[in-house]
Design a protein that fits this description.
With about 70 residues, the chain is an all-alpha fold. The chain has a domain of about 45 residues. The protein is built from four helices and no strands. The longest helix is centred in the middle third of the chain and has 11 residues.
């Protein structure tokens, strides 16, 4: 596993505006399926590309980026 630090990523965190997605998306929404699917993926090939890089800003976690793209 990599020692790279990522920006905080908490999908269940409540937002100031808009409210938590759990409040406005139905339980069977496709977004939850995709989130669960990405959580099961082996993202180690992506994570290894971040190893040792110390320049630039702190990146977003790869799991969050994959979920947004899907």
């Amino acid at each position: 596993m990599t020692t790279r630090t990522f920006r905080p990523y908490a999908p269940d965190e409540l937002w100031l505006l808009p409210p938590s997605p759990h409040e406005w998306l139905p339980e069977d929404h496709l977004a939850y399926f995709l989130s669960d699917l990405v959580d099961e993926l082996d993202l180690s090939p992506i994570l290894t590309t971040y190893g040792g890089v110390t320049r630039g800003t702190v990146p977003y976690h790869p799991a969050m980026r994959v979920k947004v793209r899907l």
